[in-house]
Amino acid sequence: MSFLSNTARKIAFWNYSRTSWQWDVLCVLILVFIFLTPKSWFENSEFRRRRTVVISTEVVGNQADISTIEQRAKEVAHRPDSTVTDVRPLRDGTGKLVGYEVDIR
After folding, report:
1. Which residues of the chain have pLDDT under 50?
2. Contact assessment for residue 99 and residue 56, using Cβ atoms and an 8 Å cutoff
3. For residue 64, what pLDDT is reported?
4. DSSP codes of every residue in 52-84
5. Which 8-state DSSP code applies to residue 40?
6. How far is the C-alpha of 74 from the C-alpha of 57, rounded, in Å?
7. How large is the greatest C-alpha to C-alpha distance in the chain, in angstroms?
8. pLDDT in tens, 60-79
9. In this structure, are residues 87 and 69 in contact, taking their beta carbons and an 8 Å threshold?
């Protein structure tokens, strides 16, 4: 039992020198993890599904109809079955309305 606790303690506190075979095994395990881990383990599916689209006022006209803006944003994003979560007006430095930022999920 003391062998297992000594080994666990050495691994946890890493008492091995850089020239030991244990160090080499650790480096190989790190490289295996880096190169063989699937990319999907690190993807945030919620972030990947959410998208922000910027629609200029020329596309929707001068009307501020939210349903028209949502419809145009879905067309631009090529996602007609998505849902719009937020519509924000986009203004330039002088305060003039130049477009809309639309969050699509």
Report:
1. none
2. yes
3. 66
4. EEEEEHHHH-S---HHHHHHHHHHHHT-TT--E
5. G
6. 15
7. 78
8. 766 667 888 888 888 888 88
9. yes
